[in-house]
Amino acid sequence: MFDVGFSEICLVGLVSLLVIGPEKLPQVARFVGFWIGKVRRMVSSVQQEFKENLYAEEVRQLMQQQSEIMAKLEMDSKGAQNLVTEEVQRMQTGFAKTFNDLNPEQPSLQADTVTEPPPKATVVPRAQTVPPLPPLKRSKSKQQHRHGKK
Fold this sequence. Notes:
By secondary structure, the chain is mainly α. The chain has a domain at 8-99. The chain has helices spanning 6-20, 25-102, 140-146. The two termini are 83 Å apart.
C-alpha cells in the first residue's frame, strides 16, 4: 500500500522520540498501534462485505437466468405436448376413417369413441403368494408382568 522503507521508519521513530520524549513514547506507540489495527479491521470488514454483496449479486443473476431457462423449457414442453395431442387426434381420425372404409356394414366408428381396451387382469398363481407371518413371541418379562408376576 505505502512504500515505506527502513530508513523512513527510523526517521519517524527518531522524530517521535525527540518530540514526544522517552517517557510517553511507549504509551503513544501502543495508542498508534491500536488505531492502526482498528483501521485494518475496518478495511478488512468493508472488503468482506463488498465481496459478499458481489457474490449475492452473482447468485441473483444466476437465479434469474435459471428461471428464464425454466420458463422456456416449460413453454417448449407444452408446445411438444400440444403437437403430440394433435398427432394422436389426427391418427384416431385416420384409423376411424380406415375402419369405416373397410367395414361399411358395421356401425361407423367415430374418432372420439376410440379408446384403448382395458388392461387385462393378471392372476397371481397360488405358489407366488406371500405366506402368513408366524405369531409374535413375547419375552418372559412381558409375560410375567402381564400375569402379575415380577
